[in-house]
Amino acid sequence: MISMGMISIISVLSALISFLSIIPTRRSHGIEYIARYMFLFPLAGVILGAIIGSLALLLSLTVADGMVRAVVLIALILILTGMHHTDALADFADGVMAKGSREDKIRALRDPAIGSAGASLLVVYLLGLFAALSTLHGMDLLRALVVSECIAKYSMVLQASMGRVAWEGMGAPFIRAMRGRDCRGVNWPRLLMATITTVGVAYALLDGVGVYALLGSMALSMLLLNIANRSFGGASGDLFGATNELSRMASLLIIASIP
How many whole angstroms separate alpha carbon 230 and alpha carbon 216? Predict the structure, then answer.
């Protein structure tokens, strides 16, 4: 069962936000501790989205040009998140597009240098963010950023719940936290809590548009998980990081495109 006091929740959320961004906390926590509370990622995403969205709202009140505003917002998102997941996005693309065996693909994914596939996907990602953010303003922009950040974090929870361990790396503790030590089943109470949180936030802030954004991101997450299974034999930290970025972009594009 999941039972947490208010002080404990605040402490856990503080640790999760520190892990998912550059915001520091008073004490450091190991990866096993963070993974144990992965089901609260969407709630941490709401807080991060609110921080970014508040800055975006202030920016929309002072900067009239949507394109200039979008560039500044993209820079804020990259800085606040420490670009950790952006790096994973490039690595994942390089690994998937590498020629050869599964071992060759894994070697390309782990190569610290960014290849042409990684660079190309980064450009697409940044252009997608720019296209979405340049059309949103005011409270619509604030709500979109909160929902998209919540969805991005939920996408990683969903993949960890449905995936299998590719190798003993950063992603393994999260998969075990959502599937158990033997990774044979889904921890349904944890997944259900993350799902209820995300659906509630998406619908409360954006009604049906938020639900469409969530469904689109869920479909994208499952597609990326399938690609990872075929290319690398399972899920990894790079998959989760890439999914976080692409889910954010996809949900923002869906929100911006529906009147």
Answer: 21
Does residue 1 belong to any structural domain of this protein? Answer: no
pTM recorded for the entire structure:
0.94
Distance CA 149, CA 162 (A): 21
Residue 105, both tokens: 């693909």
- The upper half-sphere exposure of residue 232, i.e. CA atoms within 13 Å in the direction of its Cβ, equals 33
Phi first, then psi: what are they for 165, rounded to 5°?
Answer: -70, 125
Phi, psi of 248 (to 5 degrees): -60, -50
The answer to whether position 48 is within a domain reads yes
Give the range of the structural domain holding residue 65, as residue numbers without chain letter.
6-257
Residue 202 falls within a domain, yes or no?
yes
Cβ atoms 159, 243 nearer than 8 A = yes
Q: How confident is the model at residue 6 (pLDDT cuts 50, 70, 90)?
A: low
